[in-house]
Fold these 4 entries.
Entry 1:
Amino acid sequence: MMRFAVASTLALSFVCASVPADEPGPGGFLADAKANLNLRTFGFRNDNLDGTGAPSRTEEWAQGFVVKFQSGFTPGGIGYGLDALGLAGVTLDSGQGRHVGSSMIPSDDGRATKTWARLAPTFKARLASTELRYGALVPQLPVLMANDGRVLPQTFEGLQISSEAFDRLLLTGGRITRAVGRGSTDRTGLSVAGATRQSDAFYYGGADWAVDDALKAQYYFARLDDYYLQHFFGAIHHLQLGESSEMITDARIFSTRSSGANSTAAGRAGGYVVGGYTEGDTGEIDNRTWSISSEYRHAGHALMIGYQVVSSGSNFVQPNQGSLEGKGAGGASTYLLTDRFIQGFNRAGERTAFAQYGFDFAAVGVVGLKASVMYLKGTGADTLGGGSAAEWERDLGVDYVIQGGPLKGVGLGWRNAISHSELSRNQDLNRAFLTYTLPLL
């Protein structure tokens, strides 16, 4: 890790050597500092609609506190700073038989713990338009997405460099070594869904290129040691159709192949396997996934339709620590439009058609109110017993932010999802949450 950090620091200096070093600002480390407290009250209920196995229902309420501190940078050619996340959760309601560890609240001898907390600091350095970050990271990249679907967010640990030294081009690269789940305070290594062996390194890099004001192109690569090598190609195009209308087209292609231990029979025999269907039942990662969607927006309306294809070699994979026992590391996100409230629609061989309609009520004078509905239908998923399976999911979402009075800024949200699948239990999910952000600095 130390050699990588040194190499990354040298790369930071090299990239920016030819760029004029702007002062990070007259304010400096403390004068430019910002801090806020985000409060999130989160209720979660998931009913299993069939099957006799436990649990038949997961139901919990929790209160989350997230203090986010961001310093400025010290003056000089290279500016230094420190960011930090202070994360704390309090169980408001749970009970034996209704608590499932790793979903939202950590477990203590099979029961929901009463309180949990952790501190996640990040050292940062900036030279001109290039920034190095070391420590806690919350990436939102095509090859690695931190999950924020419960009361507290998932975080990763490692080093990342990003640079905007070139016009219209953002370069990003890094190395991740550990993760902390959204319902946990335990640090884990990295893995894939269905595996129990951990990896100590996830390398990634890529570019976001604003070709012009309408088109953005992306390329990223990632390597999870002993599991896979992944390439991503993406493009997002905005087409203006008058003053209040536009069409957004989003194309995504992933190519993922086994690497390291997962690419050898001996390595797979040692536990470096991926879960779910694999061709020949080998446990080897081999996947191509592509999707395309178009969204039409007009006067508050947004209608999106899309289609996604997953190849038959194995399920689509990105880092997922959920199968590591006793770590509370469940909950992972992927950069797929089909990554929804219940299902991921990322099984080997699966073809998914989807449509979503959303409306921003500000268009009719109700500022702060938004609603959406989405339906997904997946078919052709390969099964371990041979043949294929289908599944579908319907999602509803309503959000409102109070615009005035003593409760101004308070956000209210509700999510409902129903899923029927031939490969998992049918489910009915409800989430309700209340949020408020209080500035501290």
Entry 2:
Amino acid sequence: MLDLLSFGPQGWGWQILGGAGMTVAVAVSAFALGVVLGSLGAAAKLGENLLLRGVAEVYTTVVRGVPELLVIYLLFFGGNGMVGAVARVFGHDGYVELNAFSIGVMAVGLISGSYSTEVIRGAVQSVPHGQIEAARACGMGRWLILRRILVPQTLRYALPGLGNVWQLTLKDTSLVSVTALAEVMRVAHLGAGSTRQPFMFYTAAAVIYLVLTTVSTAAFDRAERHTMRGVRRA
């Protein structure tokens, strides 16, 4: 049975390793997209524009209230039509088709962004307002306050929550297997069906996810300690 997981001509080792790499690629891309969407959503929710605030509220409410698999299905079956409609607005009349990787990143990124929005919003509100007022009193402009005070401290407060969002994003990549993208779960499913050894292949997938989440936890813990250097603790 272990020969099936080897890297030999009869083994599935290279396919599983490639699936793990694809899982990491989707997770990193989706998490980066989620952080961008979360930053924009948090800015909209904290801003004074009622329209943008309403759009951000609808986005987080809908995406967090709908099952993740349904979001992937909606983008998988409707994403090409939406992209084509946007392309026609800019004068492109040809057919636009998104590949499975793009759809997976968009779907998981939308999900990640909805949770990142609340994490970043809470982190911004945790920054003491007195520091902002003191910076203004010292003559700092808006962008200087953003760069030297707001962003560094927001990152410090948001990092634990973003670590949890990353773990969710990493595990949500398993749902992208429905788009036929060759990530870990898809490869495990193909291997289980081809060899009639489902327990072995799904156990291998579980081990890979466990390794990835363990390494991620250690990395975020180290990043948190780095951002907390010089901070006095009670």
Entry 3:
Amino acid sequence: MKYLSKFFALSGLLFASINISGCYAQSADSAPRQAVDEAKFAESGLRLIPLTVESSGTIYQFDVELAKTQAEQAQGLMFRTEMAPDRGMIFPFSQDRMASFWMKNTVIPLDIIFIRRDGTIESIAADTIPYSLAPVQSGEPVAAVLELIAGRAQELNIQPGDMVKWPR
């Protein structure tokens, strides 16, 4: 039993070291990073998918949790206490709609990025306030919403009009 627990502890360390990655940039002309393995899941149990944001000729790459169902979208990033800079969550909608989010039970501040059907960024609500009940809304109907750790959009100079791509 003692050896079994050591095996699981070492396996966990190996798994953690394999899954640690940083967001990196590449030029828009270079080859895209290979897609995240379909079997890759976040600690939340949600599927992780690759997502890129192209801003001023630079492509920023993230692995984001895919919140597809109504229940997954309602839960969002609530109760999370941390998030890596190369991670996020994407909320795709089947039909374009006015999107409204709040920060109830959301511990960490976020950048909320509203995305049009063509993949362009409509607007960014930067550095949202944890636990706030104030609505954070898109300015027009959107196809998806991307949440990143607060300050990441400014750090990478992500702006309205930039292009967001992910497997749909």
Entry 4:
Amino acid sequence: MQAYSLGQIDLLVTFSDRANFLMEVLTFEVVELLRCYHAILGHPCYAKFMVAPNYTYLKLKMPGPNSTITLGSNFSHAYTCDHKNFELATGLAHSVELQKLGKEAAPAIPDYKETTVVSALSPTEETKAVEIDPSYSTKMVWIRTNLPAE
């Protein structure tokens, strides 16, 4: 699935509180996607704010005018967001795949008037034994010698 940019928007982004904050204008690409996240901060944001991300502890650290600004989340919130995103992505993928399969697959309608004879394969004069591995004479398969033209 592809996403196309609908345009760009410049937003004033502020991190932290009144005592120690950083404020910059960031340019975001606007796309129409069903996602759990409202915005994704990537390398341009990290470069502009001089952010050091720590993905293990879900923290962002950046220099502030008075001290280091630390932003974080908790694991249960991150898990909830990831789980919702997974369910959404799975649902979208399945709906697209199902539509594609519906267009490609022709409905198979069995012919109930046609009779087929199913017989069990048993070692008779119509079969012969073939060794699978010459070093093991006990490993053999039975193959049919006169198969129908179908």
